Amino acid sequence: MNRNLELLNPAIMGDEQAMYELFRYLREHDPVSYVEHHNYEPFWAITRYEDIKFISQNNDRFINSPRTVLVQKQFEQVLLENFGSRNGLETLIHMDAPKHKKLRGVTREWFKPGPISKLSSTVKSIAKQYVDKMEARGGECDFVKEISLLYPLQVIMSIIGVPPEKEGMMLKLTQELFGGADPSQARGVNPEDALAVLMDFFAFFSEVVEDRKKNPKDDLATVLASALIDGEPMEQLDQISYFIITATAGHDTTAATVAGGLKALIEHPDQLQKLRDKPELCHSAAREMIRYTSPVRHMMRTTTQDEVFQGQTIKAGESICLWYPSANRDSTAITNPDVFDIERDNKSQLAFGFGSHMCLGQHLAILEVELFFRELLPRLKHIEFASEPEWVQAIFVGGLKSMPLRYEFN
């Protein structure tokens, strides 16, 4: 059996050890691998750091459309029929120049380091709220379900301007969107079920847009509702797509990092103690947690000309898939990549992507992770696993689904 087919197996991609072993094998033996599976259109799997970085920084040669994430043929057809695109709703991650640059510019100022730093007091307050909740649980909780999934959700919803009573619905929709291959999170097994999730997002954010047009506020929703592109109001489909990617990617990946970061600290008590002793390392620790967990598993590109990587010729118009967790464990680019080191520099890691499509919300994500652990660790006396952590079965965005803990506060 060709091992590259395991990339499409949610059970393997939802098993931390099995996933990284697979990436190690592919980097060493099949780094540019042609994948053919009856449920998917063929694609090339790219697993080495140098190739992924090169592709990411050359967007004119490797474009995002028409395939941006791995979607089964049946669902691609449903999206094509309903939206005229194999990607469905076209978000920032699906767009190419010049449209991508224009729409990214709508919120660019919001997500720069300066404006994000001004959110510190808000994020710190929400972090304290969830550490307080953890303490109030009396020494035991499922950290993922009760803390890490909800904390960044509340942060991004407050920035967008979505009321707290809608957070539960937004969490459910995000899990159905990203966890569509996980039996416990998927809405159903048919392409129509996945389409229904997108339509629910569309309906919800359509109401938000209309409300902000009538009742503008000092929030991101108002910025998007009133945005102009080339002097004209942003198209509704673009507005809704913008909301969806901001709301979903803005909390799900950070939640995965907070949970995966705490798991790594528990498994590396020397790093946990170091972070207790030197809380000023929380910023670099946050960046290491993001590299170490790499919640976004992949993105896809399409070649505009013939390309050669590792001796393999990829023809113009063929699809390629960039596997970020593999790049972030590539020893040719990152020293001792399997070691969790909170003092690591991490300027070269690719968890946020690279080039013009580098994650717009990276500074917010780092701030959220940093401030959570700044709040938690000084109050925490002891922590351990209460039972084995469980992972979401997903090939696009992944992370922990459950992590029962026992702990004692000071």
Automatic annotation (TrEMBL):
Respond yes or no to whether keyword Metal-binding is given for this record: yes
User: What is the protein's given name?
Assistant: Cytochrome P450
Q: Which family does it belong to?
A: Belongs to the cytochrome P450 family.
Q: Which SUPFAM superfamilies does the entry link to?
A: Cytochrome P450
InterPro entries, per database record: Cyt_P450, Cyt_P450_B, Cyt_P450_CS, Cyt_P450_sf
Q: Name one GO molecular function term.
A: oxidoreductase activity, acting on paired donors, with incorporation or reduction of molecular oxygen
Q: Which cofactor does it need?
A: heme
Keyword tags: Heme, Iron, Metal-binding, Monooxygenase, Oxidoreductase
Pfam families listed in its UniProt record: p450
